[in-house]
Amino acid sequence: MLLPTSKILGDIRTPELIIQNGVILEGRCMISNDLKHSAKDLIDLEYSKDSLSVEKIFGKQSGARE
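RESULT FIELD:
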């Protein structure tokens, strides 16, 4: 839930969103039930567009799933 004093400068991806009057949103908003992925999956998806990956940026983490 974004309260009236919220100021968002960037994109939002979420399965559900409530925005109250007075919120400032400068960016894109994608609302979909298909967005129930892990944060790593979403970051990988975004960076793969530029031929980058989370592992290249942050290194492979022990115990991470393939």
